[in-house]
Amino acid sequence: MAKLILKNLYKRYENKKGKKGAAQNPYAVNNLNLECEDGEFIGILGPSGCGKTTTLRMIAGLEDITDGEIIIGDTVVNKIQPQDRGIGLAFEDYALYPPLSVYENIAFNMRARKVNDEVIKEEIDRIAPLLKIDDLLQMKPGKLSGGQKQRVNMARAIVRKPKLLLLDEPMSHLDGKMRQVLRTEIKRLHNEIQCTTIIVTHDQMEAMSLVDKIAIMKDGELQQYGTPFEVYDNPVNEFVAGFIGEPPMNIMTVEVQKKEDSFLFKLQDADILIPAPERYYPVLREGMQARLGVRPSDVMIGGTGSKGSDVKISVFENLGDEKKISFRVGEGFLTLITTDEKRYRQGDIVKLEVKSEKTHLFDVNTGEKILV
User: Candidates 2.60.120.200, 3.30.457.10, 3.90.700.10, 2.40.50.140; correct CATH number of 250-362?
Assistant: First the structure.
């Protein structure tokens, strides 16, 4: 195992056309600082093009860095060749050799390093049961399912006893059911081999269920780094708030109204009023606009005597154990999740209530969280 530190890391792709006056590409990774403790499982999460895979490739040595330092253990590895960094890397694409058996695919890199056959067999016999591929060793890749191929791919990375294991979207080609199975297997495997692990993914559910800490990126910049609970419960800006959570957080423009000694949030384009928690009072003023966020699980349908706002149901989805109900708000929807057994229909009028203490307030211009 090894500690990983990324210090003021930059990656910029220069404009290769060289046209006079042509603007250079922006930084793919912009001043990234990240610290992963020995044995931790870290997720780098973000939408396509945010710089997460570029970051992983720089750690692996497959991509030159523009500036900054990558430290593995106590060693700055900027100038060290990929094969000498003590890294195991499992790609999004399995990249298995079709003519070779599973056993020989796993053994390939060790044979290239002149490891003797006894050691190779010992290591494969150790790793194969952990990944539940010990009964596949004599098969060819063409006979394997997608999930089995990814297990072999990971075995090939782990058999080298890496200081650092890098997983580049390892489940992106799998169907939903297999992704759930492999998520459990990856978590179990990490706990057993106790190897410092970095996984790159655009799937927030994947990250939330697997890792100790999540680094959320956007446009090459780190937005927030913390535990799954921290980024879910206390997002630092509107982007993180909307990216983490399924269904995503409801985020709506509101105008502040004052009623006697209290404040209310009125949703733009809807006659919905939400009482403002007292903790917001020091930063609120009448007529102020802000962006209000609330998780679907913190929105409810009120019962008899409810003082909530009257709203019309636009969409009702029965998901089995829970129901998803959406209400039209301007051009978008406000969504709630409930386990209520009652069946609703489109067009039903209900009372909408919000757990105001669970709301999040963001600046309408910058998207940053308003600190209170």
Answer: 2.40.50.140
